[in-house]
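Q: Could you fold this chain for me?
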Amino acid sequence: MAETQPPTASDTPSASAAPAVAIRVAPSPHLCDAHLTTRGMMIDVLVGLAPVLVMAVLVFHWYAVVQVGLCVLSCLVAEVVFTRIRRKPIPIGDYSAAVTGVILGLSLPWGAPWYIGVLGSVVAIGLGKVVFGGLGFNIFNPAMVGRAFVMLSFAKELGASAYVVTRSNLEVLTQATPLTIAKQFAADLAAGKVVAFEQPVQLEHAKAFWPLFIGQVNGSPGETSALALLVGGIYLCIRRAAAWQIPAGIFLTTVAFAAAAHGSMLTPFNALHHLISGSVLFGAFFIATDPVTSPVTSTGKFLFGLGIGLLVVLVRVFSGYPEGVMFAVLVMNAVVPLINRWTIPRPLGGPVPRKD
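A: Sure. Below is the predicted structure, expressed as C-alpha cells.
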C-alpha cells in the first residue's frame, strides 16, 4: 500500500498569493432606495408647493402668476445657457431649476419689477449653482443667493413700497406687511413716540390670528398662508423629501427667542405671531431643507435648524430688516461643513480606522 506523502510547501498556495480581505468600517447608509431620485424629490417639492401656489394666486391674483412664471422661465433658460457653455448634458429634466424658480418667485415681492425676477433667476442658477459645478456641489441655496443679490442691489425696489399699491381693487395690496408694521412700532416705541399699551389699529389688525393663518395679509406670495405652508410642509416630511429635524429646530428656537423678545418689550409680536408671519414656515419647510445645502446627519440637521431660528429672531428684532429668513439660511449654509464635522456618527464596532 502506497504511503500518502504530506503536502510540500510548493503544493500549497503562498500567503502572498492569497487575496487580501478588505473590511470597510463606515457610517450608514449602506443601502439606497432607487425611488429616492433627484427628479422624484423635486416633483415632491413641487407637489408640496402646490397649496402655496394656489393661495398665492387667490390672494394676489395676476401678480403672483407673473412673478412666479417669470422666475421659472428665467431659471430654465439660464440652466440651458450655462450648461451649454460648460458643454455638459442639459439637466432641466430633473426639475431642480423649476423648483429654484418657484421658490425664488414666491419669495420676491409680488410688486417687484420684471427685471428683478429675471436677474435674480440668472444669479440663482449661475452664481448659486453652476459656478460650484452644478446640482449637488453648491454650498448655498440657489434661490436665496438670487434673492440676496437682488435685495442688496435693488433695496428701493424691494423695500416696503414694493408690497403696497395705493390704487388697487385688492384690499390686501393697500396694507403694509405685518412684519413691517411690527418693526415700525418697535422703532417708534424705542424712540419714545408711542407707549407699549397704546397700540395703533393697524398693529391690532396685523396681529389678528385668523388672517395670518389663512393668508389674507400682505407679503411675498409664498409666505402669507400658514395653513398652505403647513399642508405642503407636512407632505414633504411624510414623503421624506424634507428632513423633519430642520423645521423642528427652527420652530423651537423661533418660539423660544421670540417669546423672550416679546417679554422684554423688544417686539410687539408674540412667539405665535413670529412663527406664522413672514417666511419662517416657508423657509423651514421649503428652503432650509434643501438636501444639498443642509447637514447630512440627523443631529446636524437639528443643530442647523436651531441656528436658523435663532438668527431669524435676531435679525427681526435687532436689525433694520423686518425679515431674516434669507440671511439666516445663507449664514447657516456656510456653517454646514463644520456641523458635518462635529456630528460624524460613531459606526457600529468602533471608530473608523485611521491610516498612519
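A (continued): Residues 120 and 150 are 6 Å apart (CA to CA).
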